[in-house]
Predict the structure.
Amino acid sequence: MFPTVDFKICGQICGLFVTITILIFFVCQKKLNIKSELNFLRTLITATITCALDVVSVFFNTLIPQAQISILLSKLYLITMLVYLTSVILYIAGDTLNKKKYNIIFWVWTILGILATTAISFAEIRIVDVYTQGVATYIEYSVAVAVVVFVSIFTVRHRNQMYGDKETVIYIWMASWLLFALIQFFFPKLLLVSFAVAFGVMVIYIKLESIDNIIDRETGLFNWNSYLKYVNDMKLQGQKGSVIYLKPNDTLKKADEKVLRASYKMFNDAIRKRNDIIAFSIRNEYLFVMKKDNLNEIKTFLSEGKRFFPVGADAYSAFYLNNVERIDNEEDLEPLVSYVESKYAESDSAFIPIEEEMIASYYSISDIEEMIKQAVENDSVVVYYQPIYSVKEKKFTSAEALVRILNEEGKLIPPYKFIPIAEKTGQINVLGRIVFEKVCSFIQANDMDDLGLRHINVNLSGTQLSDEDLAETYIQIMGKYEIDPQFIHLEITESANVEQNKTLKKNLDRFLNYGVVFALDDYGTGYSNLNYVVEMPVVTIKFDKQMTDSYFSDAKAKRVMEYSIKMFKSMGLNVVIEGVESKEQLEGLSDMNVEYIQGYYFSEPVNPVSFVNFLREKNG
Ligand code: C2E
Ligand code: MG
Ligand code: MG
């Protein structure tokens, strides 16, 4: 008798051991005291009882198959399984839906559960061998199928509200149910249901609820996952709160390791004693969530905390945000804080509010940063060319290379949207290199003389000129494509202050020695310091569109422009007028004897193929 029992319930016993072990681990581990933990605990307890009752009922069914007690235990087992299934739904819905919607789900499934329980209590159940059969089991199967269908549809519909791996875990869970059901169907003697129950909770525990998922190993504090869970819970419960990010100051970072460890321990102990503050460790920095939005209380807490640290009051800068849901990506936190810090560079306050507008502007910057990164990786940085007309020669003798990004939707993004950000993030260096390489490749692929071109102008930002390797890299690229340096003119702006920046000067000299010359771009914007302009090692001055526009609208500006053009010409410099859009403008400029003109009147910047076609047609 015993060997048969052993064989038939070994799956159940394994399942029971698994659930009991997880239950013990879960009960003993540190908790956030949020609803999803309670929901998981309920699922775990009902799973354990289900497995236990399965073992007991099979045992009784084997010993005294048709006895009242065996029938009763079998029904009880079916009923606890119902409760387990309902707990599963509540666990899944609990941290996804807000209070109101959750309550609806709660009541619908509780009532369904009560109805099914009542039906099972009165329904017929038969015990054949040790297996239960009859109407009661069919009701049970129907509820199980309904739960699986409901959970699957629910997960697909609400996947965007689920954090971390939750969606995947639910799919694994449901797939395992299906697999076990199939096995059970083909091998009815295996009795796998309890094992399937245990397997389900095990997957959730390992992937979502175990200590490794919620605690930072190094500090023993809650980790980013826990932060998301906690904040999600606050949101669903409609609770407000604030987040404080502590950024250690340089003096603290340099403090003795041992002393620091002791300080942190004291600090953590102090936090643990309070139930209105919870500490998270995010990439080795502290993040607190306080369930109240009381600034004074936070300040008092922080100043009390600082006394644990060797450097006292200067230990930390605290960044304060009164919207706990605002940051949902761990990687954003540090750069956002640095961004905010840079905005407050003037203030030496140790308590810095993170304003909503700052977060918004930070995110729009980081979106563009990401777009540039993608464009560089996917080779979707493109170069357009705008021809420059020589009035004397009556043909197009040069052109300006202008960068664009082809985004994922196939739209061309103009440079004003990304160049200023690329300059801030340093991405301008790689962008510039790509542009330069594309220009060299264009020159190599085309016969410049044949096209009537003397050179192509490439823009350089001030930041690029401060890159130590700029000249060397560009010269290498020219070597690779065997480009005669006279085909390249580099456009720089006045803001590139030659005197004050040694690297910049070195770059300029290296280029000049190699035979690459410069043009001064954007002349007439900002503060033009004539004296300074004269000192720049350039062969061409490019008048900005702003200047061209004011030439036609403002008599004073017109005179300034006339005289400066005269002066530049007398110095042997070439002058290019940018932004000429109409025939009238072109004619209006003719008294000044301007040599070169660039503008929409002749052509907008166009792609390389159209550019070559344009030149073939116009230059003949
Ligand atoms: P920029 O160097 O002054 O280039 C001239 C800009 O004026 C171009 O704008 C051009 O399309 C525009 N433009 C030319 N003629 C007309 C006209 O008749 N009417 C109007 N409304 N606009 C005209 P784009 O291509 O949008 O470039 C803007 C700026 O972005 C450039 O100003 C340059 O400072 C920067 N940039 C473009 N490509 C690069 C690059 O590869 N590297 C760097 N560092 N900066 C670049
Ligand atoms: Mg330019
Ligand atoms: Mg310009």
Notes: The longest strand covers residues 395-406. Residues 386, 402-403, 414-416, 419, 428, 432, 435, 459-461, 491, 521-522, 545, 578-581, 598-600, 605 surround C2E (ligand 1) (CB under 6 Å). Residues 35-63 form the longest helix (29 residues). The two ends are 104 Å apart (CA to CA).
